[in-house]
Write a structure and sequence with these properties.
Oligomer: single chain
Distance between the termini: 28 Å
Number of domains: 1
Low-confidence stretches: none
Order of helices and strands: EHEHHHHHEEE
Bound molecules: magnesium ion
Radius of gyration: 15 Å
């Protein structure tokens, strides 16, 4: 069965800043999730640089987000920048660790570009619909028959 996964950006989408972690736009995002009815909800945030950030997020932010949005967040498919760099390195047959964080942002600084890479080359999303809700993306839908994927990006401002 085709599965739909909604990925939520963090800063300026569901919280103010990673440091402060105050929830924002809760009602609108909750409505959006109720409309979309995804099988899974995860995070796709450039505020998560590494494993330490992910653990920090899991401890400090995830309980409040889950409670206020009424969904479970799947952190196992929520990539950090380090995960995304590894995906790109593998895809381009680069040596591990050779893509710096700066290189990553030069290539994939636009959120929709990073998300498309992740959808295509990340962990086994074939046949699925991946939706990114983010404050920095255009309204877009991409059908990628070769990877049997549908990728949508939704600007949170449009909710
Ligand atoms: Mg943001």
């Amino acid at each position: 069965m085709t599965e739909k996964i909604v990925f939520l950006d963090l800063e300026d989408t569901v919280i103010d800043t990673f440091a402060d972690g105050n929830l924002v736009r809760t009602a609108a995002v909750r409505r959006f999730l109720a409309q979309e009815r995804p099988q899974r909800v995860a995070l796709f945030s450039y505020a998560l640089w590494d494993e330490r950030d992910r653990r920090n997020c899991e401890r400090r932010l995830v309980p409040g987000l889950q409670e206020s949005l009424g969904v479970a967040l799947d952190l196992t498919i929520s990539p950090t920048i380090d995960d995304l760099r590894r995906i790109v390195e593998r895809t381009r047959r680069m040596a591990a660790g050779s893509l710096s964080q700066q290189d990553f942002f030069d290539w994939f600084g636009r959120k929709e570009e990073g998300f498309i890479q992740f959808a295509r080359f990340g962990p086994g999303f074939e046949g699925q619909t991946l939706v990114l809700l983010d404050d920095m993306v255009p309204e877009m839908e991409l059908r990628m028959p070769a990877s049997d994927l549908i990728v949508r990006t939704v600007p949170v401002q449009s909710l």
